[in-house]
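Problem: given the chain below (371 residues), write out its structure.
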Amino acid sequence: MTVIAAFKISDTPVLIGDILLSRSGKEESHIEIPTSDEVSSVLPEEWMRSVIGLYPKVALINSSLAIGWTGQTFAAKALIKEIRARFEQPLFNSDVFFSFLKNNEIIDQTVELTIIGWVINKGEPVSFYWSAKDLKVVKTKDTYIEGSGAVKFKEQLKNTEKVTEPATIRSTESACLRALSIVGSLLTEEVLFGNSIQDLYGGGYQIIVFDQGEFTFIDDYIVMPMQYEETAHQGRESLRCTLPKYVLKHKYFNNTLIISRFSIERPWHELNKIFLVRDAQSNFIDISSDEKNSMLSLQAKFYSCFPFLIDIDGVIVLFQTFSVPTSDKQWIYLQNKENNQLLVFERRFIRFIVGHFERAMAKKYYHIDIN
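Solution.
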């Protein structure tokens, strides 16, 4: 089971896929995954559902073609291998690619396999859907979301439509930040509640965006899945937010996604574990000393930490409807004007963010005084 999604944000094509490999119908031990070191606590072995590996479910074939898959892993491997062999170069005829899918001779039609993605067709990105069962290529929509996590993903995607951003932000940057918002929200709920693990998807996410005429990975980002609880404050619905349990850094080396998990319960900068997400059999990866230092660093191009999304230039707060914050010695309060909900932040959590990034919080678009 999985979740893959091809859609547009701010008129920019995006492709997202999770990394969890699972098996049903057999009692097996779980592997450790980036979001949980105790998978059995949310997915007992007697449920006959096992988390057995981490594997990329989106593939960047070239700068003009990006695909995601859901279904049987062996079939996906075979088909993607053939697609890479035939369409490795970015200058190809998309009609030939669609014809290849329609006349597929690689995968048996009894196999469960669905492909979605984006391809450059006559100079413009076009989304598509294909299933091994009927071999039809569908190109009638901009959005295709498949897998056991589709319903939850659609909810998160709908939430991004409510976001108000500064007019000066580029559409591609907006797409990156909103995609990271979705991924950050999904990973936060996974770390806290394990719901997605029970539905056999998650573990981490790969994100491809269309930027300057090419499809490319968001190749260096950090997710801080903060801990929160629903509560009430003076009769208002409230979310109380505290320091995250883990910080998850996603970075690519030699086309391999490495997720570095840092522990907050120990000193916040301490590396807890490293996970490789690749389509090769070997766990060996040759990286330079500079790349290794980068892997061990909490510096990144983008940061996702609800409700803050941070890019290289500063902190962007996407929730523009908060009233002026108030605070006491331990907590900082933000009130949402639309639904009267309060976000209550632990003061040390805000200081953690500001202290690490060494800049005034939201200096461009929003200011929170924590002194």
